[in-house]
Amino acid sequence: MGQIEWAMWANEQALAAGLILLTGGVVGVAGQFRGWQFAAYAVAAGAFVCLLEYPRSKRAKGTSVARTGQYCFTVCVKAFGPLTRNYYVRAFLHAAICVPGGFMLATVLGCVCLGIASLIYLAAAIRGEHWEPILPKKETRKPVAQSIKNPPQNPPPRPPAELRRKQAKDLEAAAYDNPMPVTLDE
Amino acid sequence: MGNFIANEGLSIFVILVWLGINAYLFVEFYMRFLVERWFYTRVLLGHALPWARAPAACLNFNCLLILLPVCRNLLSFLRGSIQCCSRTAARQLDRNITFHKLVAYMIAFHTAVHIVAHLFNFEYFMDAQLNRNGSLLTFVLSEIGNGDNASFLNPIRSNETNPTIVMFTTIAGLTGVAITLALILIITSSMEVIRRSYFEVFWYTHHLFVIFFIGLVFHGFGRIVRGQTNDSLKTNKPDLCADNFEDWGKAGSNCSVPVFAGNPPMTWKYVVAPMFLYLCERLVRFYRSHQKVVITKVVMHPSKTLELQMKRKGFHMEVGQYVFIQCPSVSRLEWHPFTLTSAPEEDYFSAHIRIVGDWTQALYEACGGDRNEPQEAWKLPKMAIDGPFGTASEDVFRYEVVMLVGAGIGVTPFASILKSVWYKRIQNNQEVFTKKIYFYWLCPETQAFEWFADLLQSLEGQMAEREVTDFLSYNIYLTRWKDTEAAHFRVHHEAENDPITGLKQKTLYGKPNWDNEFTNIASKHPGTKVGVFLCGPPQLGKSLEKQCLSHSEDDVKFIFNKENF
Q1: How much is the pLDDT for B152?
Q2: Interface contact A12-B126, CB threshold 8 A
Q3: Domain shared by B398 and B385, yes or no
Q4: Which of A10, A17, B188, B415 could disulfide-link A114, Cβ–Cβ 3.0 to 4.6 Å?
Q5: Same domain, B51 and B139
Q6: Given this model, what pLDDT does residue B67 score?
Q7: pLDDT band at residue A139 using 50, 70 and 90 as cut-offs
Q8: CA–CA distance from B151 to each of A162, B223, B251, B303 (Å)?
Q9: Residue of B nearest to A112 (CA)
């Protein structure tokens, strides 16, 4: 399992946990359960976790698959700089968020799932992973080479006429070494 | 439209039947909890009770189904038996993983409904214990069974607890939490992103299903859902006695105190057979893995592809089948699927393995790939093979005209087919049903051509020798190239042999114009069924499927077959 970026799985788990926490909170509030205040907290916490976890990180190796419409979320999450980049912060944040969920039955499942996500994030952080935003690549225009401004003064060198006549029939023999060095403009 | 039915009809039928059974079970078990026996339970719980029991029944059914599509030895056996009767039915079995995923989604859905309903149930049970007022029916019902602890209705027996504690102290609650956690971990690690990149995480986490099934079987053992016993119904009829609950059991009243008991656990009846079948499946895999497999040749191809040629006693394959390969010295638990690239007519079987991940890299090193000198035969690692398993490619020879499309490494099943074609037609001069093969290979880079070029070159040579030039028509498309390479191609455009493959057939650049190809083939072969076989990315599959549907008219029918792992 050497190649795995644990953060990818932690991200899926945390997103799922956020949704479960949110659903549990909604049920707790809608059903007016005892301890509905914890449920109300869970709704807010679940929504926050979902928003934080929705944008996928750019993978260190390989192609990253962005979630649909994650660009705005990426920009928001990126704005927090090191707080969201570092996975230690995320691990402890999730661990802290999940605790109040354990006080009410409706949110217990979300709490445990988020706890597991927090552990996987801790593993990711220990392995040195961090969050990178997936941003669309900026188009870089190739700088115009200097030589384009000075067109050549002389026609290109040509072999003598008798060699040129044979070109159409025999490609291999018609090939010749160019006496002037040719370089590619990059 | 007709071809859509031919291609998809059976799948749609199977899905509709499955959804129908789910709907039927849901409604049926919902209604079962609206009868008299559950009257007093519903006084406490309202409609949350049937809302929890109905998805439970559906869960039983779906958990029965989920193990079946992954018993690949059983499916392979079934496929072989059905093949003689109906090709369509046999193809249906190739979509086993899709069905497995659908059933998994349904399990997740029903689990969610079940849990939400039970959250309400716990809350209502707790309410009944907390509102300790003797003039409330709910409280009176909760007090029943305090003496003997057997005839109670409310599983929460005191008011000095809370639902969370109750959940962790009942069998149903504990197993419920455990199996839901297992289910969530299985689902998050099975997301496509994780599965495609880190197969090991997916595979190991998926084994949590063992915990899932054990927990599932024990989930009902606490008999926590309780209804009135039949004897009790004779002495306490709910419609008559519910209103005068304060007089139950008192002299002069014809209502005695009701007695409750739980339903016996039902889930084991549903899942024991599939669990047994799956156990047999794993035993078959284990047995096969201990049969001796010998590596006869290891070839390292330039495009980071390792070719292993192996032999096993009694191994028999058909074209385009695949095997699962295990190398105990690399990993004791991992089995990875690879298509066989050899033909059945050869005396060995081979697989071309691309080196992309941990396991393949370790296998490459174990076979001495990173060392330059040839390896001694006894130094090569021990291997285990499970299979071969059938896929759609077996059907190639049942069509008169065939289109084979492979993208990149997806060409491997077709390597097997082309080799077999060569052996059958040219060496043994057997009559084959297939009269014409159109082969398309789409490749993003030139390096990948190397190991396949050999095969195509020898085919080309053989066909030219025997002047059998119109049997196989192949087209190779280079879909990506660098500017520097493009210059080279242009200069050598007129050369006799293709600059990349060295074949007489020129490489084409860019993506094929499928519309043109299909139209050409349709016009050349009126009145036939053309089999279209693809091994490649899903987007290509979608566009080919569309082409098949749109070009199947009148007499020419394009039947689309897709390989997937």
Answers
A1: 86
A2: no
A3: no
A4: A17
A5: yes
A6: 94
A7: low
A8: 114, 12, 21, 73
A9: B181
CA distance A105 to chain B (A): 5
Give domain status of residue A175, yes or no.
no
User: What is the full DSSP assignment across A58-101?
Assistant: PPSSS---PPTT-HHHHHHHHTTTHHHHBHHHHHHHHHHHHGGG
B320 & B263 share domain:
no
In this prediction, residue B273 carries a pLDDT of: 94
Note if the bond before B388 is cis, omega within 30 degrees: yes
The yes-or-no verdict on residue B192 having pLDDT over 80 is yes
Number of domains, chain A:
1
Residues B230 and B307 in one domain: no
B302 secondary structure, DSSP code: T
Maximum mean pLDDT: which of B49-63, B228-242, B548-562: B49-63
CB < 8 Å to B112, chain A:
23
B307 and B269 part of one domain? no
DSSP state of B323: E
- Rounded to whole angstroms, how far apart are CA atoms B306 and B299? 6
Q: Give the C-alpha separation, B334 to B221, whole Å.
A: 35
The tokens for A143 are 């700088």
- Are residues B145 and B279 located together in one domain of the fold? yes
Chain A: nearest CA to B194, how far in angstroms?
A: 7
Q: Which residues pair with B439 in a beta bridge?
A: B404, B474
User: Do residue B200 and residue A1 have CB atoms under 8 angstroms apart?
Assistant: yes
Other C-beta atoms lying within 10 Å of the C-beta of residue B37: 17
**CA A100 centroid distance within chain:** 31
Q: How far apart are alpha carbons A112 and B9 in whole angstroms?
A: 43
The pLDDT value given to residue B376: 78
Mean pLDDT over the full length of chain B: 83
Number of neighbouring beta carbons within 10 Å of residue B514: 18
CATH number at residue B537: 3.40.50.80
A12 with B194: Cβ contact below 8 A: yes
pLDDT (tens digit per residue) in B475-488: 888 777 666 666 66
Do B351 and B430 sit in the same domain of this protein?
Answer: no
pLDDT 10s digits, B194-239? 887 777 788 889 999 999 999 999 999 988 888 888 888 888 888 8
Residues on B contacting A at a C-beta cutoff of 8 Å: 112, 115-116, 119-120, 122-123, 126, 162-164, 167, 177, 180-181, 184-185, 187-189, 191, 193-194, 197-198, 200-201, 357-358, 484, 494-495
pLDDT at B305 over 70: yes
**pLDDT, tens digit, for every residue of B438-472?**
888 888 775 665 777 777 777 778 777 877 777 78
Q: What is the DSSP string of B74-121?
A: HHHHHHHHHHTT-HHHHHHGGGHHHHHHHHHHHHHHHHHHHHHHHHHH
* Domain hosting residue B333, numbered range: 291-367+381-389
Least confident of B4-13, B79-88, B162-171: B79-88
Sheet (strand B557-562) strand order: B508-509, B472-478, B436-443, B401-407, B529-535, B557-562
Tell me the ipTM for this assembly.
0.75
Residue A8 lies in a domain: no
Q: Is residue A147 part of a domain?
A: no
Q: Is B437 helix (H, G, I), strand (E, B) or coil?
A: strand
Q: Does A123 touch chain B (CB under 8 A)?
A: no
pLDDT at A73 over 80: yes
- Whether residues B191 and A12 touch (CB distance < 8 A) is answered with yes
- Cα separation, B52 vs B38, whole angstroms: 13
Q: Evaluate whether A4 touches B200 at the Cβ level (below 8 Å).
A: yes
Answer whether residue A69 is part of any domain.
yes
Residue A94 pLDDT grade (very low, low, confident, very high; cuts 50, 70, 90): very high
Cβ neighbours for A85, distance < 8 A, ≥ 6 positions apart: A130, A131, A132
Which range of residues forms the domain containing residue A64? 13-127
Residue in chain A lying closest to B176 (CA): A109
B197, part of any domain: no
